[in-house]
Every structure is written in structure tokens, then in C-alpha cells.
Specification:
Elements: E1 3-13, E2 16-21, E3 34-36, H1 43-55, E4 64-73, E5 82-93, E6 100-105, E7 115-123, H2 143-154
Parallel strand pairs: 1-5
Antiparallel strand pairs: 1-2, 1-3, 2-7, 4-5, 6-7
């Protein structure tokens, strides 16, 4: 079985989380920016690079690893079959760069043409916040841990 090292960024602004959908693939669920480590790259380096590639933004903030996850893929369209060993990072910003925007990922890991992303923010604490099930292939599994972190940080406890 092939193993892929992956790094993802859960970026929050207050109680809102940056996520994206793929407008050209309407059945794809919500995702967070991130992807595969390049040879010789650390998880943190990959998280920053992948974030920039998928959002068009660069991060000059601290990122903190908050969860690890192993997720198996088999016959998932546009995904590499095998074990995806994921490290999830959390970063906080004070102001959103925009409430919504589109960006093209020009070098998808699985190859192929550029992928269009529609990036937007979701409030983690509203009644209509997306559930874990609305997230693509296990990305929602980190939501409760993230909510606890955001709640602690907003109450002044780190």
C-alpha cells in the first residue's frame, strides 16, 4: 500500500473557519487547504506551501499542529489510492482577506488540469454550521477539537 504524507491548514478568524468547495465538481464536499509533502519537505513547510497554492494567500503567522489522522483512500475520484497520513495545523488571523474568492490550483497532486476552488468562511458555532458529514473524506473529524481550541483562545486561555 502506498503512503502519502499530507499537511492541512485549519485557518480561523474569530469563530470562522476557511474552507473551499470545487465548483466544477458539485458533488465534492467541503475541504480545508492542504496536500502532499514534497520530497525533503517537513509537514509545516508543506502546510504553508499547499495553503498558498490552494488559496493564493501566504501565511506569515504561527501554525500549531493540533491533530494527526490516518485516512485510507480506495477508488475515490481524483484521489490517490493508499494511506493518507495527515497532520492538521491551526492558525489564526485577525482580519479576513475577503469573505469569498476563487482561486485555481495549478499543480494538482493527482495531475490533470488546474482545479478551481471557491473559498469562503463558515462559522463553527452557528446552528447551521456544516456537520462533519458535509466535509470531504474525514476533514470534518477535526471540527470538535478545533471548536474547543477556538473557544479556549477566544476566552483568553491558550
Amino acid at each position: 500500500m502506498l503512503i502519502y504524507q499530507k499537511a492541512y491548514v485549519y485557518l480561523t478568524c474569530g469563530t470562522e473557519l476557511l474552507v473551499f468547495e470545487e465548483p466544477d465538481f458539485p458533488n465534492a464536499e467541503i475541504q480545508v487547504p492542504g496536500g502532499t509533502l514534497d520530497p525533503g519537505e517537513s509537514y509545516l513547510q508543506a502546510a504553508r506551501r499547499e495553503f498558498a497554492e490552494e488559496t493564493g494567500l501566504s501565511l506569515d503567522i504561527a501554525l500549531e499542529s493540533f491533530a494527526d489522522q490516518d485516512h485510507f483512500f480506495k477508488d475515490v475520484p481524483r484521489c490517490l489510492d493508499g494511506l493518507h497520513r495527515r497532520r492538521h495545523f491551526h492558525g489564526r488571523i485577525r482580519e479576513k482577506p475577503a469573505s469569498e474568492w476563487e482561486h485555481f490550483e495549478t499543480s494538482p497532486n493527482a495531475g490533470g488540469p488546474p482545479i478551481r476552488f471557491r473559498l469562503f468562511w463558515i462559522d463553527l458555532f452557528t446552528m447551521d454550521a456544516p456537520t462533519e458529514a458535509r466535509f470531504f473524506e474525514g476533514f470534518g473529524a477535526q471540527l470538535e477539537t478545533l471548536r474547543t481550541r477556538v473557544e479556549r483562545q477566544s476566552n483568553g486561555r491558550h
